[in-house]
Amino acid sequence: MNATAPILDPGPQLRPPSLADHGLPRGDSTLISRAIKRQKDGATLIYSRYKGLIARIVGRVSRNGAIQDELIQEAFLNAFQNLPQLRERSRLKSWLSGVAHRKNNRPIAPMAPG
Length: 114
Known about the structure:
The chain is an all-alpha fold. It has a single domain (25-104), classed as Rna Polymerase Sigma Factor, Chain: A (Orthogonal Bundle). The protein has helices at residues 28-36, 40-58, 65-82, 92-104. Helix 1 crosses helix 2 (40-58), helix 2 (40-58) packs across helix 3 (65-82) and helix 3 packs across helix 4. The longest helix is centred in the middle third of the chain and has 19 residues, at 40-58.
């Protein structure tokens, strides 16, 4: 008699919840439209989706957490102010990367003591 080991069912795959799981839009184009219309969730979700990417870019400029936070905020502020000029909405990720690179290729002024 040939005994084979039973195949174990791993059960449902664990994955992080997506935007769609919460009834929110998935595509960058929808988020861009919502952000341009000043709908808070559009900008918030773009920020949540791409903050890690921008943090990695600014992390090359400074290892100081406070400076990194400031650079991340400046990059997103600049991006949101110029979002209506983004022509190819499917390229949001690379466009944001470019904004962060340009913003961070300038000299950093020393922080005032305090």
